[in-house]
Structures
1.
Amino acid sequence: SLMAYDEPLSSDEEKKQLEEEEEEDDDVEAGPLVLPPLPEPDRKQQRGEARSGASLVVFLIAVILGLSYAVPLNQRVGHLNRQTRRVYFVLIHLLAFGALVCLERILRGDPGVVRRTEKTCSPMPDVVRDRLREGRSLSDLRNVVDKAGDSYCVRCLVWRPPRAHHCSICQRCVRNFDHHCGVFGRCIAGTATSGNLPFFVAIICIGYLAALLFVVFFIWAVATN
């Protein structure tokens, strides 16, 4: 039987193969890029704002409930029938409970932070990859925007949708960003069914509704006295 032997490589082919091998060696030496840690949030400011916001909500709840039970208001309400009083106190306590639920969701819920995943981190823009390999800072780079309108944040190192924004206090990119709330110390973001924006809107509405409910029943009680 005939033995098949590799034909000797020409000088051009040998040169090309050598270049390919050198490129492969470079890839191996570079290895996978290790992303730097995410920027550290301003936790002191976050905690201070969150404490003030929580204290404000609890204080307003205590004021409304305290006035509802206080004398002489309670005596005036006593002139109303029992069913009316019961409806009022059930409603006012439900609103207080709803405010506490909204407060918890604002402080502990996810506003829509863009997490680092394989999907959000790739493909990495060449300019960012080159700087990371060289150990150079990214602080002077602008965010990279693709044709679809998505942008690559050079601080979080993630791809994010058009309405996302990087919060300078929380130091995270957040989808459907609305604003950073200085009262609760959290990013407020989302849609009607996502994020913490619905709870933020709800707690404001609850505050106005509770105040209105108290005033209406107070006037009603005085008028029937």
2.
Amino acid sequence: IENGGTPWNPDDRGMFFPLTWARACEALMLEHSSNNKKFIVVTNGALARLGVSLTARNPSLVSRLVLCSPPSYQDMTSSVPQKDIEQNLFLLRAVQSIVFPLVLDNQFFVRFFSNLFLFSEESDDEWLEEIQTADKESSRSAVIAFNAGVLEHRSYEEELEQTIQQPALVLIGKDDAKIKDIEYEKSMKNCKVQRLNVGQNVLPYEAPIEFKNAIQQFIME
């Protein structure tokens, strides 16, 4: 949003994967593609679904896929019923005037949530300041949609197990609850799961050097 995008509102764009995100990335890749240049798609967290979609849709443009701290393989290959998503959206919208000021805009809660679910060590002031200074008003629809499960409306089993032929790397931090999840490696055609000795769920921020080194090694293989 801060780079010129528009908030994604399910009322305007429907109850489906926000394909416009993938198409925007594809347009950017085409704009910068020259001399048969290929791209490496790198995602963190729930944006794994976007990375999988991009890689599956663009075999001639994407050479490799890196999923950092993705959802579990079971979550990626299952779906949330639309009626449940609609109910979640209704409830979250009904309480947003209370929830956002008291919880999501509260630095104490952001720190508590980050330390509990995102970071292996305590989150730092720079992280908290970045979260607190974000444009919350314009991003509320996207936050509500994400927490309602809109991105989980369908399975990505076909893309993961059949469509994607490119090499894939799954990076998992040492304190990630999914550290024993090897289904990606077992089910995808050309996938390696690598566990780092640091971090939890935001490895690019928690352990940038280890994160960078793992990707460099993957590219050179």
3.
Amino acid sequence: LSEKRSLQENNDTTLLDVNVDYGQNNDGYSPIRIQFQTDLLERRRGENWDAALDNVESILSEVGQIWRKHISVTPVTGMGIPFPPADNCFGLHDNFQPFNNSSIADADLVVIVTAEDTLTDQFNNTIQCSAGFLAFSGACVTDQFDRPVIGMMNICLDLFATIINSDFSTAVILHELAHTLVMSPYLFTLFRDENGEPRTPRPLKIQNTSCWDGSTK
């Protein structure tokens, strides 16, 4: 396998908002607590993917610690990250037991990790691993300040399991988590300045623009 990343961001523009409790007197920062939920990933066990799944889960723990060293946030308090009012995350959190229609505590970002060959969103758009991707990811839910609090990451086991270089495997998942955290054109539009004011005027307007390669998006 050529060690050229074949990755994709989940470009769902319909990010949901939830209200998150950050406490009345909490004005400090702490290293981000990323909670990877792998219940749906574990469904692939018994399909000759056990070694690959063990590798993915080991890398997730390592990658979480790497980002924790570099990102500090105002920590979520109270009941934690609430269950979203609707599912715009490929139907994942509707089938996700830990939320249990309530919330997840002790986390600042929840990432639902899966290993599906095909995922279909609420608009019947599909992303397929057969297109040659190693993985794809993105943010699904933001808080009242536009910070991602729930995201998804899908590992394409057919290709991911063929990676021999462990550093490259780690780099793939590190890259994917960056899409969930910040590296997304849709999150870029939600950036705020040092005073907490949106840098892009609201309400957001979707419009076509010309790209450097001559295409229009």
4.
Amino acid sequence: MGVGGSKKEDFEDESGSDVESGPDEVLTVEDEIKRVLRFQNNYYKVLKLNPTSCTPVQIKKAYYKTARLIHPDKCAHPQATDAMGVLTSAHGTLSNTALRAGYDLYAAQVEVDSAGSDSYATWESKGGANMAHLPQWLVRGLAHPVLGPVLVFLMVALMVAAAALFLALFLAYFVVHMVFWFLCCFGCCGHCWPRYGEGARVHARRQERFMRMLQDYEAEAQMAQAKGQPVPDPNVFFANWNIAHPEEEEGNAVPTANAAAAATGSNHYGSMP
């Protein structure tokens, strides 16, 4: 593990008289390094803090207090670098509110004091860190030993209910769709539904008729502009076009207005004379 970027002087300046000490907490450098490495997944034990009540000030004091003993600049122990890396990770994680929430969730899901448990970094790489982006109240609830399982159960039940509702809606749509398809195909031979049978052909003819009407209007507007006349009013043009071209049965072609205009050289559907 890497070593924190603080130098020896930083530990002396920032931790000198503010760190509390007691005779029962005095450990040798070797014992302190072994303790840090023993609890390397339990950041609160690494810093000797209470998980539920420690403050940012206490986290900082605990960090500098231990760093004064095990920092490689002040200690020649062969494992000092590894222990300092653990200590720096613990301080950096618990000092950040968002990272601390994620770590608390990790500590609630993993036996952090077990020698074979996943480290916090491994847990993050498996996707556990994504849960740290949940609302703080939900993260804390999931980390609670009693409330956590209840919330997990409710979340799973909600997802199952949502999936069941989606499936029910899909089946309902499928059944209704098939019923209408059956009635359309065997009742009116598809006239009532544009997607099947005769209905599809009627729909296609109406679409083609509508596009012809638009093309005729564009041609009429271009002709009027070329002559320096006002552009035909679209409402008047469409009404006259529909009167001149009533909807016909399949097989009867609908003549276009520009063809008639080309033959007579006059405006048939526009608003000008």
